[in-house]
Amino acid sequence: MKFTTALAAASLLISNAFAAPSQVHISLGGSVDESGASSGMYVMWKTDDQPTSTVKYGFSEDDLSNTITGSSKNYLNKHGYHHTALIENLSCDVSKVFYQVGDPADGFSEIFTFKRAPCAKSNTKFSISIFGDMGYLDSDLRPPKIPHGDEPYHGLNKVWSATYSRNMLESLKDNGEIDWVFHVGDIGYVDDSFASAPLKFTYEPVYDGYMSWIQNLTSTMPYMVSPGNHESECHSPICIAQELKYGRHLRNFTAFNERWTMPSKESGGSRDTNMWYSFNYGSVHFVSINTETDWDGAEEQETGDSHIPWLKAGGFGEDGEFLTWLEADLAAAYADKKAGGRKWIIAAGHRPYSTIQEMKIEGLFIKYEVDVYFAGHSHSYSRTTSTTKPVYIVAGGAGCDEMGPSKDDLLLGPVGGDLIESDKYSTGVLDVSDEKLSWRLIDSIDGSVIDSVDIA
Ligand SMILES: [Fe+2]
């Protein structure tokens, strides 16, 4: 190799190393097809500097001849660029899409694949994993450095693990048991990350770590997310002490809304954010609700999870906009269901039943025949019986540093109803057909089925 060629190759390697795309993840989106399903996929990734946001894609590994250009944002100085591009208008006969992300000058990622959403309202079978409250790694790999006695320090445990659930998700993917993932809030617990390095800025590096840790899932199947209280802000000692440098830029769900793109625009949901949205997939209309802000009494309506006065939060829509949208969205889904369209309506949000009561939307769920409401927040599992709809399922036991018994002050289902409960590390799988919703809760450590139910 000539010296100049070698030098050019070396500089490309250096350049690639600096700008290499990481944290590749996808979510359902784009204009809807004639069945009402997403015709495409948002593709998102991170780079350290700011190359162009380019996706090359095609329908075989050898032909990535289609190119789209997206955009990038830098929401925290010196902490990289988050890219988003949209592949859409995929025809109904497309089964598999091959893609890579990057920049023509700096280079591209490896080639990933995803499946297009089913182009039909019925006769579609698919499976998803649904859970909330999954942290990043475990206390062996990220040991807490704050003072710990026998009791948790401000709710932070000394020993915990999200590794079991992460490994279980990998095995569900490898076995073809899931088509996509719905993480209903509290993604990585990055606001707790200072526990393992109290005086360092850990929020962004740990979020980066979480996103790389799950890339093997998120680059090949949609990873849909709802906002949880742990998405609201950075309130570590350094974020508070250096408010102008960190705290102000990371308040009010910034990282959540800049790193992820959900189909809010497509569904008339929250403007330019992921705070509320809906989408169709096969025989289901899914609604992701906002349990955190934009309704009277919402806990993060004025300030974030720490309630430090200057870390303001809330206000993603006009007064009443979110709940007005929710009713209209459910009413339309119900009309479609009654007209012989989609068979199921599934709502999901971060907080359990007691918040549904506080939001005063329990009546909407009944009126528009929501079949199931999935939540997390309580770091354990509970399910109401399937005799009354909606069935309320809390799947919050994926594992995090706050894992522990159910929060005593939360009502997990209607009073007087029976609850099936578990406090094991667990992940849930929902198998959907036109005939039934089959839910099972899997022990993330040994793979055994802790609970299962058919909802028809
Ligand atoms: Fe939570």
UniProtKB/TrEMBL annotation:
Pfam families: Metallophos, Metallophos_C, Pur_ac_phosph_N
Residue ranges annotated for the Purple acid phosphatase N-terminal domain, each copy included: 21-115
Signal peptide residue numbers: 1-19
Calcineurin-like phosphoesterase domain location: 130-381
Residue spans crossing the bilayer: none
E.C. number: 3.1.3.2
Family: Belongs to the metallophosphoesterase superfamily. Purple acid phosphatase family.
Protein name: Purple acid phosphatase
Lineage, uppermost ranks: Eukaryota, Sar, Stramenopiles, Ochrophyta, Bolidophyceae
